[in-house]
Amino acid sequence: MRGGESRGKFVHMQANRAAFAHYLISSSLWMAGMSLYGFLFTWLLVGVLDRPADEAGMARFIAEMPPLALLLLGGVLGDRMNGRTYLIVMHIAMVIPPLIIAAVYTNDSLNYIWVVLFGVLTASIQSLSDPARQAALSRVSHLDIQRSITLMTIVTTGVGMFGFYLGGHLEEFGLAEVLMIQAAMFLVGALFVRGLPDLPAPTSKRPSLAEGLRAAWSTSLARNLIGLNFLSSLFNAGAYIIAIPYIVKEVYGGDAALLASIMIVFTCGSVGSNILLWFWMPLKQPGRLFLHMQLSRIVILGALFFGPPLWLFYILLFCWGLNMGITTTMVRSTVQEIAPVNFRAQILSVLLLSFMVSSPLSSYVLGHVIQAFDPLAALLPGVVISVLIFWLGIRYSGLWTWKSPAVSPQDVVENAAVR
User: Fold this and answer.
1) Which of 42, 112, 288, 378 could bridge to 243 as Cys pair (CB 3.0-4.6 Å)?
2) Contacts of 79 (CB under 8 A, 6+ apart)
């Protein structure tokens, strides 16, 4: 009897490993396509159309604000629908935007409006897809949540650098060809989603949007962490998104290749941080690490503000990547651990909303800061915000004392058996 149970557990574990592999590959292709989109959207405005910083910031604001309404809808659909079927549809839908821009560019009709439309369509589909994709992770992985998210971040971000590589060779490959490759990434990703097991809704009862929002608010630690993450994203992630391209162009006189290399270095830091985290997980008190990272970010942004030599600029961007990689993983893993299973996709959609709201708002504000002063000035608000997050986090959030359930003796034994 025990032999039969052991064989059953082994078969189940192998099935979970196969499902997790399909999940990682499909998510990696999605990440590569989205990394390329992030590069293309910025460079089409800055390098191809030669738009000033305030117009580029406005373009990102316009492109990312409409999809915000769809993000919460994506959370509702993620909790209501079969996850595998839903993600296949999202992958196929994401093929459309790059094909449209490729056709427009080929006909020599590319302009500011078309680039904004490219952003709106892509961000909208991402908003509908991401809550369901992230909620599916805990259902297909054979690891604890902290390690699952860390491994996914390492793999998907590493593959995502291929998108930056393509962007850096834009002039060599051609814009239309690069857009076709981007569309192919999403299409091939859909084939790997088909390899996932059936992922029906967690319960027969279909939660409403109002119920999901109440669950997010009533889960106090998740609510506080999402709020702090919003503050962090507002001027830290925003500074990276809108300020770095102009710092590269105006301070260092760089081109698309230099911007791509900078993004790769930053991403290497993000991946490297998650590789380090893997060996220390599961962390007993991940909230403390999140808060300590705010202090180190003050030093990094302060050093960048003085316009260091290019070699030091690379080192600081790598350190910034390390910092943001750790904080992002801590936020995502903690919210996943806290969120009730019936409302997981919706609570994750609120977390993603905090990222997406902060990005266009900060891009709009920092675009005007750059236009009024210079690109380096856009780094200073992040210093103030980091101090504020550290203070609020210790005094009011509950993060400093919260302990992860992943460090219970039973989980430690199960994780050791998996490894």
Assistant:
1) 378
2) 135, 201, 202, 206, 207, 212, 342, 343, 344, 345, 346
Q: Which amino acid is at 180?
A: M
Helix (H, G, I), strand (E, B) or coil at 195: coil
% the chain with pLDDT above 90:
7
Q: CB atoms < 10 A from the CB of 328, how many?
A: 23
On the question of pLDDT at 246 being above 60, the answer is: yes
Look up the CATH number of domain 2-196+208-418.
1.20.1250.20
CA distance 263 to 249: 14
* H-helix or E-strand spanning residue 240: none
Residue with the two structure tokens 């350190």: 319
| pLDDT confidence band for 7 (50 / 70 / 90) | very low
Span 278-302, pLDDT tens digits: 777 777 787 788 888 888 888 998 8
The gap between the terminal CA atoms of the chain, to the nearest Å, is 25
Letter string b/e over residues 134-157, b meaning 16 or more CB atoms within 10 A of that residue's CB: bbbbbbbbbbbbbbbbbbbbbbbb
Length of the chain: 419
